[in-house]
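This section describes the prediction task in plain terms. A model, or a person checking by hand, is given the sequence of a single protein chain and must write out its three-dimensional structure as a string of tokens. No templates, partner chains or ligands are provided. The sample shown here is typical of the held-out split.
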Amino acid sequence: MYPTKKWLALWEESRPLLQSPSPLGEYFAAGELNGRRLALLPMGNLSLPTGQLLAGDPFYYLDCPDALPYYQPRPLPTGEFPVQAAVLLPQEGDEGDWPRYAAVEVIFREKEAVRYEEALLGSEELDRLEEGQYFGFDVNSGLAAICDQETQEAYRLFCDRWYRRNPQGDLCRDYFEPLFAQSYRAAPLYQREQGDWISWTVPGTQLTMPIFQSGYGDGAYPVYFGYDEEGEICRLVVQFIDLSQPEEHPSDQLSLADFDHQPGLSEGEIRLPQWDELFGCCGPYTLLLNTDLDHPLDRFTAVQLGGYDYLVRYQQPIARAILEGLWKEYPRLRRRSPWEGAEKRRRLPPVKKAEELARLLRPVTVVLHDQCWDGLPYVGVEFRCTWDPKFGFGVMLWEDQIVAMGGAETAILSSIARKDLDAQRSAFQPHTEEL
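The expected answer:
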């Protein structure tokens, strides 16, 4: 889709607002930026037969027929181009963290970029753009990819063919996860055991695209074209982590003195203002640190601090996962409800979308469990709910993935987290599978 004349006029006016506020060139040139250590990770090549570029979540966007390439004010060269990631290394003492990809870059020309400007599709509402805002693409699988338009079309056909042969299968889990694990075994540098990147060639073609982890996970991330001194596009950068300012951890504000400590359990508070707005509450919420210690907690662990930071940073994705998980179970809840008539309509009203369920819930307690996977703890959330005022509603999560839902005790029982963790460990059997 080519942009309209009206959009192009707005784009010209808005270009100063589209400049990257981050020093993206320094991500790939400096070993340290604002006190944080960086390393470079080559990721193979990107095939660019048409010069039309796309970027997005490979399982929630690039597999769709309506995915669009970026509007390019200057043409891109065609051919094979190197890809590399700027890897943010864990800080000293962050035993529970792992290398995260702060940005991924495609190099079209050897000349350095002198400015970076956000890449757009040509349909964005530029008249609403304000300073400090960006458009970007959504990630829902924890992964992102960059590809040529021809590669994207071949990928879509591959997905269709795979699902015809595997109607009960899951493309990400059954096909790609083994490839990521194989990538780790072949090149473990700056990867977790399950793998964090692959350079994937669409079967039956010579079209290659990189697929890689998205920094801190799901979210919305901007894409920038880098322009050289002659005004030519020489880079494409997907930015996952803003390194323009020294890093701040929400957990830096935590103090042991603010917690009531008992053997195996410490009780404090957590403020989640985005939950206040979504659920119509007024925090703070009770925060429980559930440990296996036989003595009171004498220091926060890296897993507890990382879990606290994750909760504060990703309030919306976590809440969205809870509401969407409940949305799937809501018809069953209504069918099995003991309430009838007007009382049922009040306590379990018909809803048209997952977000409407927020008015039926009130968060009460957040639990950080000792059990962790990849450095992040299992998290339980206890709610008051309209349909079960006596026992409430509870969810166990890891990141923004639902592990279990049920009564309020679901959030508290560490045995639920332990059982899922054991299942994850036993299920992680790297293997390869070909189409």
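For orientation: The CA atoms of residues 321 and 400 lie 6 Å apart.
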